[in-house]
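Look at one record.

>
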Amino acid sequence: EALPKLVSALKLRGKRAACAIPSPLTFCKHVQFPKSDGMPPEILADTMLTEQLGRDASTLVRRLIPVPGAEHASASKNEYICLATGREIVDKLMKAIRTSKLDPVGMHSEFEATLHAFHYLNRRESDKDRVTLYLDMGGGQTQVVIGHGKKLVFARTIGVGGLSLDECLARTLACSIEQARKTRLAMGDFIPHATPTPTPAPAAAAHADEGGVMVAEDRRDDATPQGLSPEVTAIPRAPTAPSGGSLHEPLEILTDETGMCLRYHDTMFPNARVGDVVFVGGEARHRGLCQHIAQALRLPARVADPLSRIVKADQSHTIDLDLTQALPGWAVPVGLCQCPTDL
């Protein structure tokens, strides 16, 4: 209901709209189906969804993403990522877009959109073997995405986010959740703004060839790739919680669950281990949080600032958005702008 008013206030020039299905409303599961039993994997996926969700598969919108090259104990099975949501959710999103007098051109999962936001880092032929973990730490949960270059090979949602941290802090400080969040934000230990692209390009051309060339040069010079912070362990350390508070429980769950995701990936691809971490999501602004997770995972890590790669020639139409600060929470919107328009 609020979208038409927001679109009107922004005074958008274009009419094309791509949409991400909210991750809390998205079913995501890795599944294995036999390679040759005469039954299409789509039929097997629908049967699985009916059993798991307790509703007819015809009431769902389902996407089955193959994971080629995955190894298993049984060589007779193929690996897939199964994504699904209620058809009524898609209908509601489509209605909101059309009510806003926009033309819907894409409907994607947040997992896919996140990966598309970083295609510019994986433009070279050799980058198809580059294995990166993307951690999208939001308000309600954390999304785990692993990509081999531009290819999505792992996706999962962990039920730990900013709210979990605030609830834990409220218990340890004996205060309200609202006060706990204000206390966390007041720490001010935010990730610094990413260095802008030396030669800015329009938003629609954020994935142009020039960007790929710059990334290749950055890597040869061992410099920080555009749109990313320095390695978080190289930045002065910051606490994960304010004085007198503790976030031990939710952070232990988050790091343990993420470690399980890495181990599952390693069983599928024993010769392709994750080499680095990219933090996105609103909670990724907190330096101490990212440093704690990177240290627990024992991987080099950076925080992404996707909007820093986009020209900000006119900031007069932005609403409640401070473009001088790092904004890792914008990975999904930026990625949507580069997703296929396949509707």
